[in-house]
Design goal:
Helix content of chain B: 10-25%
Radius of gyration of chain B: 21 Å
Structural class of chain A: alpha/beta
Distance between the termini of chain A: 54 Å
Number of strands of chain A: 26
Oligomer: heterodimer
Largest sheet of chain B: 2 strands, antiparallel
Helix content of chain A: 10-25%
CATH superfamily of the largest domain in chain A: FAD/NAD(P)-binding domain
Shape of chain A: globular
Strand order of the largest sheet of chain A: 3-2-1-7-19
Distance between the termini of chain B: 59 Å
Number of helices of chain A: 10
Number of domains of chain A: 3
Strand content of chain B: 15-25%
CATH topology of the largest domain in chain B: Alpha-Beta Plaits
CATH architecture of the largest domain in chain B: 2-Layer Sandwich
Order of helices and strands of chain B: EHEEHEEHEEHEHH
Structural class of chain B: alpha+beta
Largest interface: A-B, 60 and 49 residues
Shape of chain B: globular
Number of helices of chain B: 6
Radius of gyration of chain A: 23 Å
CATH class of the largest domain in chain B: Alpha Beta
Largest sheet of chain A: 5 strands, parallel
CATH topology of the largest domain in chain A: FAD/NAD(P)-binding domain
């Protein structure tokens, strides 16, 4: 049995290792489109501030880790998939046959249709190669314009500010991290960043990137007419799944590759995982792309188990994220924007940059977002994914939303002398 | 045999000596804010519950880590954070459904229970036996009870508690002094 995995990000690597454990006889080939050993894009911001070197970004640290496990890492790009002959067409003209195939090709950064976006010194920040180029230009005192204040933009924002650049952030929506934070939290993040010396424009579009004059090679024109002289422009306006090579393959693609709860695509022996997969959303029951690390790891493990002939049904992923913007930590989980017919509990202390928003349906937590919360934050996932019935704890949480951990323990553990077993119904 | 921390909330008096011992052992200072074990307070009932990482089999934190900074200690089964490898991205803190991995702003790293390398100080410090370090199989019963407690609760099939005949001794009747 030959398992081929396309893509060496977290989903691909976790899948390869899981396959090796579950199918010791089979052949496992991991195909990477980048020249480096498998690495984590999540670690790039820490590479940019020189907290770690390139080796620090590697997903696995042991020398010959993959070789020792009998996982063959190959480098190359996939151009075509022919499911009928179980064959991939590679960029160098050769082919690669598989018995079972996992597509973990990830996503790519979107390029907005802004005039001048193709100029020199305009970069995305996605790969290690991008990071090297940014590190060269984003030196102390350089003028840097960051287009897009979504999750990725905000994570790089911190690195650029710590590199002591003159940073301007331009976001076309009405707040920062709009897909993760509501108006209140997004507003506090903006205030916080501005207090730290970062210029933030929301509700603002970039009209053009022109050639600059004087010492700065670029000039970024905003929709209100202001032109910002820039040495470096970084574009972070979102990502999209890498599915282009599937044209004509019969694999059904929507936002990503549609997969069932066994992570199978619509074509036999072809699975998908991670950023490229559109799998079940635990909270909504619908199918969505959740381009986040925990989902990639879960997908990789479940897909590999099914590929190895050990059926595992995925319960769906909770969309979640955690972000650090210059020391202000935010996180969001599940249906943080709430659900019709549900209710919520909120703590809002703008003077302390604290915010906690809990969303309920019936007496269950279905989503949350938080600002300035670092203690026991994961329990939010536990409460959502455990579908824990909060009972009387819901009212207590409405009075004090910070008592999440007590609510979890009170609902799931035996607390007290008689451990609640004699409690009447 | 692998050992595990057994936590029995019903025995906890909320003295917080576990938090003191944990923080001192792991950070060199008596600072409950930096303890990896926490005692949660239930004011309404006057109850307390110590809680920390159960070193769970699924190890959500470890699998979510993007830089392999959380590893299994083969001797104790604990999932340990390698501080020199951790970049402080905090993904493990949202991935752990038990809320037992915390980010520490002071160090820029995450922290969690590592069973003190097989000699947990919280257990040694606990004066009431609410925290003990016992063969891992023994903690299974507690988990079963916790799960049973979490299950949908219909009318209890146990008998209702009946009022008992209580003999009341008056102080004056007892002695002859």
């Amino acid at each position: 049995m030959r398992h081929v995995i396309v893509g060496a990000g977290p989903a691909g690597v976790v899948a390869a290792e899981t396959l090796r454990k579950l199918d010791s006889e089979g052949e496992v080939v991991l195909l990477s489109s980048e020249p480096e050993p498998p690495y984590s894009r999540m670690a790039i911001p820490y590479y940019l501030v020189e907290q770690i070197d390139e080796a620090g970004t590697h997903l696995r640290k042991g020398r010959d880790h993959f070789e020792a496990l009998g996982i063959e890492v190959r480098h190359g790009r996939v151009d075509t998939l022919d499911p009928a002959s179980h064959r991939l067409g590679l960029g160098d003209g050769t082919g690669l046959e598989y018995d079972r195939l996992l597509l973990a090709t990830g996503s790519h950064p979107l390029i907005p249709p802004i005039p001048g976006v193709d100029r020199e010194h305009v970069h995305t920040c996605w790969t290690l190669a991008d990071a090297r180029r940014i590190a060269e230009r984003a030196v102390e005192g350089a003028n840097v314009v960051l287009i897009g204040a979504g999750f990725i933009g905000c994570i790089i924002l911190e690195s650029l500010a710590l590199r002591r650049t003159h940073l301007t952030v331009v976001e076309q929506q009405d707040r920062m991290v709009p897909r993760m934070m509501d108006q209140r939290a997004g507003g506090l993040i903006k205030q916080w960043c501005q207090d730290k010396g970062v210029t933030v424009h929301t509700d603002t579009r970039v009209e053009a990137i022109d050639a600059g004059s004087g010492d700065h090679p670029l000039a970024v024109t905003l929709d209100h007419g202001e032109a910002i002289p820039a040495d470096l422009v970084i574009v972070c306006v979102g990502v999209a799944s890498n599915t282009g090579f599937l044209d004509g393959s019969g694999v059904r693609v929507d936002d990503g590759i549609l997969v069932d709860r066994k992570l199978r695509s619509t074509v036999p022996d072809v699975y998908a995982a991670g950023d490229v997969a559109q799998g079940m959303d635990f909270c909504s029951g619908e199918y969505a792309v959740h381009a986040v690390q925990p989902t990639a790891a879960d997908h990789g493990r479940v897909a590999a188990s099914n590929m190895a002939g050990r059926p595992l049904t995925y319960q769906g992923s909770v969309n979640m994220n955690v972000l650090d913007t210059l020391g202000l930590i935010s996180s969001s989980f599940g249906l943080w924007m709430g659900k019709e017919g549900g209710d919520s509990a909120q703590l809002y202390a703008p003077e302390r940059y604290r915010y906690l928003n809990l969303q309920f349906e019936d007496d269950r937590l279905i989503g949350a977002s938080a600002l300035g919360l670092t203690e026991h934050v994961g329990v939010i996932r536990g409460l959502i994914q455990g579908k824990v019935r909060l009972g009387a704890w819901k009212e207590k949480l409405k009075q004090d939303p910070t008592r999440l951990m007590e609510a979890y323990l009170g609902c799931t553990q035996a607390i007290g002398h008689n451990a609640g077993v004699l409690r009447s119904a | 045999m692998l050992k595990a921390l057994k936590l029995e909330p019903e025995k906890c008096t909320g003295c917080l000596q576990c938090e003191m011992a944990c923080s001192y052992e792991n950070t060199g200072a008596f600072n409950p804010a930096r303890s990896r074990i926490k005692v949660f307070t239930f004011h309404e009932e006057g109850r307390f519950a110590p809680y920390t990482c159960t070193q769970c089999e699924e190890a959500w934190c470890m699998h979510a880590c993007p830089v392999e900074a959380i590893v299994v200690d083969m001797a104790t089964g604990a999932k340990n954070v390698l501080e020199d490898v951790c970049v402080g991205c905090k993904v493990c803190t949202i991935a752990c459904p038990f809320g037992t991995v915390n980010y520490e702003q002071a160090t820029g790293k995450v922290m969690k229970c590592d069973l003190c390398g097989g000699d947990p100080w919280c257990a040694k410090a606990c004066p009431t036996g609410a925290i003990t370090y016992v063969p891992a199989d023994d903690t299974g019963m507690e988990r079963m009870r916790a799960w049973a407690h979490q299950a949908p609760q219909g009318p209890a099939s146990t008998n209702q508690p009946r009022e008992k005949q209580v003999n009341v001794y008056m102080a004056g009747q007892q002695g002859s002094h």
